[in-house]
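MFS transporter, PPP family, 3-phenylpropionic acid transporter structure dump, as promised
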Amino acid sequence: MIKANQWARIQFSFFFYLVFFGIGGLFPLLSVYFKNEVGLTGGQIGTLLSIGPIVMVFTQPLWGMICDYTGKPNRMLILAVMMTGMLGLGYLVLDTYAGMLVLAACLAAFQSAIIPTSDSIAMNFVHRAGGHYGNLRLWGAIGFASATWIMGELAENLGMHVIFFGFAASLWACAIIGLKLPKEEVSFDLDLRSGLSRLIKMPRFSLFLLATFLIFGPVQANNTYFGLLFQHLGGTVAGVGLGFLFAAGSEAPFMRFAGPWIRKWGMLTVTLFATLVSGIRWLFYALEPSLFWVYVTTVSQGFSVGLFIPAALQYVRDLAPKEVRTTAISLYAAVGTGLGNSFFTLVGGYMLDWIGISATYLMYGLSTLAGATILMWVKKLEKFKTEPVRS
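structure tokens r here:
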């Protein structure tokens, strides 16, 4: 008979698989939809897809505060998942650019709660019941990878509209799984405003947020422009999905072994290594290589994203005061998947129009290497730290 904690791990795995299946089936192909089906320019695509991350900058910390204050993150998570799936269908009925901007903002307001809240619940669970977060989160990488391939094939054969139905169905199924997740309460022992003040005043936390902006912003923006890069090099919509399958699929095995590597080398060392791999990849894409080499190098995403996510998340969680851990994770997500994503998606779109896709990826590479430099600074501060990092 399956024990309670083992069953909970299975539920978390299904949850991450489904939520990232929905995300992976929609957002990597959304820029292709806007360009080929709606006829938007690179600047319009960049503006439209940067609205959501801007909204996330404000709503992710708000969701974190609500979860911290109420101690009911599971209920907030289910609400966010249900509404996100419903709003995703709105693109099928809108035919104006202004309407799409409003929809993107509303969609992001609810979507912004999903990843940081589920991450916080999962992290609290593994610290209470044992195990590694990476073993749960890797199913998200598998879901994202399988969705890009499956939905890419379906979009090629049935039409681009299928990506919106797949998105909604996946998230609604995810909400059903979410009803059964363990109820992980968030403690609220000290004043929240005081805790936030403590976070911002910690040099390592502030610098790590800046590094996350420079590193993870391009990672997220790549989900927008990789499809356009692939088509620029002569690929098809189905080929875009296959490329994402190789890229996102490579994350799972690295997430599986991230825990032992983090224990052996340390969170910052693993994060720095992942960052350097990511920066080299973007610079290589700026050279506009052949499709063969794009396919080959997509597996480097396992080293970069597959290691960066669990190592960075654990560092933020361990660095934050206990009473604002969910808020700290939300701030971290807001800076990377929110502000960073917005900036690099917006600027990348205009650079696509003005210079070309190679300039977009050159900017991403240089930004990532700048982030690596800041991580080295944070690593140096570890030797002189005054506030202990919890392990």
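Residues 186-192, 386-391 have pLDDT under 50 and may be disordered.
lmk if u need the other ones
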